[in-house]
């Protein structure tokens, strides 16, 4: 079989250690945001405020924040979304949208969600301000992204906090989870370092009977990534590898909107044909935006937009995936060089950036199925896929 690589092998990015409590705080905050709760966010200057998801339906999110903080909230969206709304030119980062009067929850929702009153007019007097990377607004949008919600949040500073107590005291007084902006920013990289191989079993597959599956779990309780190991690849040698991002609709249901199901089964068959290799099944549904947001993107595509535009209209990048987990799993399996089955030039670049040598690209092309011509054309024309 393959040998264990040293478990402390780190991704190439130089990262400071993040303590478990900080990681737990971010993880708990994502869960709170998903439940529709407000969370307290502390910035590097020691100031504190609160944020709530625009998807919070149980309560009037704006009223809740006004009560909590005593301040008028802003809507924080990605620069992508602000550009789509024609409030700003292209750029990166996060933008705060505000009104001279208090924004309503409905207005905030409509500004953040293209499916919510898609033809709604823009409120008068709306202003857009680009925010710093270390800002509460940036942290809130990043947290919403981690929670796989729409990348937007309603955010307000705690007015009463300026002269009283610490951020922790303020959060405790209001029974809010407190999380630091810096920890949210660092989270994705840190969580990868905690991936541990927690279980492995032999799972004979049709056409690839000598197969085992190893599960890698991050410490934060997030979803496991899986390594599907076919045959007996030799540790230390270049391995035939496929990085497959989870696609519930294509992989499990056989959706014809994409090519994922074919690519998944085709990769296993090809690895078996060549003798051995690894397919990493990465918990990165919808190119990292999550299944719910992918369904939203499909609705937008049904209005005539392509897959890249649809992501951007929602405020996401065309591809939100990171390949650090894949690189870390390969290292832990004992591989530092791959023959990568892909048509996606970004996967080649990203994996190399994460310290894995790509010695060869193995094309991984399947004919269109009568429904996905547009999807494949967009991959070629806009994402640079090599077909
Ligand atoms: N956001 C979004 N994600 C999609 C859409 N269609 C498929 N996906 C996701 O795209 C991912 C599939 O990507 P991959 O199989 O890695 O394909 P790829 O990036 O084109 O690269 P290669 O196949 O390696 O060339 C899965 O997570 C799917 O859920 C879509 O229309 N929108
Ligand atoms: Zn798919």
UniProtKB/TrEMBL annotation:
GO molecular function: 3,4-dihydroxy-2-butanone-4-phosphate synthase activity; GTP binding; GTP cyclohydrolase II activity; zinc ion binding
UniProt-annotated binding residues for GTP: 242-246, 263, 285-287, 307, 342, 347
GO cellular component, one term: cytosol
Cofactor(s) it depends on: Zn(2+)
Annotated pathway: Cofactor biosynthesis; riboflavin biosynthesis; 5-amino-6-(D-ribitylamino)uracil from GTP: step 1/4
UniProt similarity note: In the C-terminal section; belongs to the GTP cyclohydrolase II family.
Name this protein carries in UniProt: GTP cyclohydrolase-2
Natural source organism: Azospirillum baldaniorum
